[in-house]
Amino acid sequence: MAKITYTNKTDNQTSALPAINKVTAADLNEIKTSVNAAYDKFGGFADYEDATTSGTPISLTADTWTDLTNDKAGANTYSSLPSYISGDLWDSASNKIDTSKVGANKILLIRNDFDVTAGAANTRLDARLYFPDTGKAIEFSHDNIAQNGDQVRYSRTTQIFTQTNELTSGCKIQIKVDKSGATAIVENILITVLSF
């Protein structure tokens, strides 16, 4: 279902129906306004595909949280966001989800698709969402990659609630390995905004 796009209606004066049985222009315009307001309030999504890391993977340092990057330059980047969000939700310059554009009291579903290639056998991988304002972190993945050189695809969805004290510095997506030599490729980041 899409937003209603017809222009405002005016009454046709030829109907002889009693008022109780009439659908007036005011009725239609009220429906249009109400439905369109729901679209603007309830949310939308943005899917950011990266184009850089497939050619230049991110080098991961052992025991160090590393930001995942995304240049949003992939051919399948697409966004359908509500009108209260201006611009993009992913800030490529600071490598973070710009939660200030969403505002407080929203639900975000964040799906991360990335590949990690181990630089050593039995490499442990941890992944998290990190909020620099509060130091809060939500860990969403823990895994062991068995063989040196193995590439593993991760696709994880995490739900968060935007609180006022987490809005300024946004949300970083970070991964950490326990052995050197590993690399990461970012496929895409899908951010869905829900509001009630």
Largest sheet: 6 strands, antiparallel
Examine the coordinates and then state which fold CATH places here, giving the name of the CATH topology.
Jelly Rolls
Class inferred from helices and paired strands: mainly beta
The topology string of helices and strands comes to HEEEEEEEEEEEE
**On the 0-100 scale, what is the average pLDDT?**
89
Apparent shape: elongated
Q: What oligomeric state is this?
A: single chain
Approximate strand percentage: 35-45%
**How far apart are the termini?**
19 Å
Q: In total, how many beta strands?
A: 12
Describe the structure.
By secondary structure, the protein is mainly β. It has a single domain, classed as Jelly Rolls, CATH 2.60.120.1120. It contains one helix and twelve strands. The strands form three sheets. Strands 1, 2, 4, 7, 10 and 12 form a six-stranded antiparallel β-sheet that branches. A four-stranded antiparallel β-sheet has the order 3-11-8-9, with no helix packed on it. A two-stranded antiparallel sheet has the order 5-6. The mean pLDDT is 89.
